[in-house]
Amino acid sequence: METRLIPVLDADGLRSYMGVTCATYFEAVLHINSMIDVTERLDMDLLELTDREIDVLAKQTECKLIRKQIGEIRQKKVEAIAANRSPRLYLKQLNSLSIQLFRLEREMKKVCP
Predict the structure, then answer these.
(1) Which of 15, 39, 44, 87 registers the highest number of CB atoms within 10 A of its CB?
(2) Cα 53 from Cα 49, distance rounded (Å)
(3) What is the DSSP letter of 106?
(4) 3-class secondary-structure state, position 42
């Protein structure tokens, strides 16, 4: 295994490189993509990836955004319970997002086991 440098762009468009030790270049890209914040993104112009790999990265990013939404809705649900209001609307949203997340993760595992 060797250290691989992955180009990352911040919110201002400035490029930096993050290093990670992985067996393959794509594993390193997946690892960095899972670690970076929503304000940062991979520099796709410098990454030489196949269409399948780009699709997997897009699904991974979408999963990350859904998890963030789930966290926000859980917080709203707790606030509703604390204010003695019904959390039913939030529970429906959580169920819908959880199903969506499950399907995306299942698709990712089929493409990239």
Answers:
(1) 87
(2) 6
(3) H
(4) strand
